[in-house]
Amino acid sequence: MNKVIITVVGKDTVGIIAKVCTYLAKNKINILDISQTIIQEYFNMMMIVEAANATKDLSEIITDLDKIGEGIGVVIKCQREEIFDKMHRI
Fold this sequence. Notes:
The chain is α+β, with helices and mostly antiparallel strands. It is built from three helices and four strands.
């Protein structure tokens, strides 16, 4: 499996989840797990997705999600699961 971790952080606004999930669906990226919280007016979402059947490569996905984030005022980070695990290992 080609798992990817996507994080979304920023001020809460209408449509954040819809825009991210619509992009993923259009590019055949399957959501395996998702967690979302809003603390006061701050939005935080973490997703584990499966990108083996994606219509674009990871570098294009990262660029596209960056642009989506800029457009809705949030920061979207996307990285392979193995890199995420190594970065957060104690």
